Amino acid sequence: MAAALVWIPLLAGLLAGLGRPEAQQTTLQPAVGRFFVHTLAREPALRLPEHVAVPPAVPVTYHAHLQGHPDLPRWLRYTQRSPRHPGFLYGSPTPEDRGRQVIEVVAYNRDSFDTTQQRLVLLIGDPEGPRLPYQAEFLVRSHDVEEVLPSTPASRFLTALGGLWEPAELQLLNITSALDRGGRVPLPIEGRKEGVYIKVGSTSPFSTCLKMVASPDSHARCAQGQPPLLSCYDTLAPHFRVDWCNVSLVDKSVPEPEDEVPTPGDGILERDPFFCPPTEAMARDFLTDALVTLLVPLLVALLLTLLLAYVMCCRREGRLKRDLATSDIQMFHHFTIRENTEELRQMAARREVPRPLSTQPMFKVRTGQHEPMFNVRTGRQLPPQVDSAQVPLILDQR
Ligand SMILES: *[C@@H]1O[C@H](CO)[C@@H](O)[C@H](O)[C@H]1NC(C)=O
Ligand SMILES: *[C@@H]1O[C@H](CO)[C@@H](O)[C@H](O)[C@H]1NC(C)=O
Question: How many domains are contained in the chain?
Answer without folding.
Answer: 2
